[in-house]
């Protein structure tokens, strides 16, 4: 629940929360006292589920656990015995009260959210407008930050059906190559209408070239600066 209502907003909610905390602390204190006794008796504490399992060969520990009134044997096999924490009448009453208080707290929170929603609803269109402007600003800042990171430049639009790239770089490939201690060679090419054939030996850069062309073209289409010294292209649908 990411929407938190502070205690200072509603006095009744604050009182309910204080009661909830008091009851939770009571249960926590009871559990802590049992764990403390467990450590003194067997050197272990109960699990998160309030139980403890011991092997049937550990007769001494079994006897010690059987002597604790807060525990009861709930499962026994040829290999292990499991004991479960048993809450007395007072603790059961506390747990029931806690469930009721938590339900009451949720009702208070729901009522407050309904009230706030009715107040804010009148400002809905204005808030949506502000949100759209913030989102637009966020995109611009992200584009600017990314452009600085890749040393990007603004591609030039042209009417001819070509893609002309000078010293284009694929940021991920460049990073991988340089981290491996090698020199990265930028891509220079011009692709025009018709069929273009790229040939070369295995591991010669054909696939990397195609990825670079595709990436830079997509970035330019989305209005991003591209990692190249220059780029000319015609936008496509």
Descriptive tags:
237 residues; alpha+beta; MutS, DNA mismatch repair protein, Chain A, domain 3; Rossmann fold; 2 domains; four-stranded mixed beta sheet; three-stranded antiparallel beta sheet; 53% helix; 14% strand; elongated
Give an overview in words.
The chain has a 4-stranded mixed sheet, with helices on one face. The protein folds into 2 domains: 7-121, MutS, DNA mismatch repair protein, Chain A, domain 3 (Orthogonal Bundle); 151-233, 3-Layer(aba) Sandwich (Rossmann fold), CATH 3.40.50.300. The two termini are 42 Å apart. The protein has helices at 11-42, 59-66, 89-121, 124-150, 171-179, 206-221, and strands spanning 51-55, 71-76, 80-85, 156-157, 163-168, 187-191, 230-233. Helix content is 53%, strand content 14%. With 237 residues, the protein is of the alpha+beta class. A hairpin with a 3-residue loop joins strand 2 and strand 3 (80-85). The model has no long low-confidence stretch (mean pLDDT 91).
Number of helices: 6
> Distance between the terminal alpha carbons, to the nearest Å?
42 Å
CATH architecture of the largest domain: Orthogonal Bundle
Shape designation: elongated
State the CATH class of the largest domain: Mainly Alpha
CATH topology of the largest domain: the name is: MutS, DNA mismatch repair protein, Chain A, domain 3
Tell me the β content: 5-15%
Quaternary form: single chain
SSE succession: HEHEEHHEEHEHE
Helix-residue proportion:
40-55%
Count up the domains. Answer: 2
Give the uncertain stretches in residue-range form. none
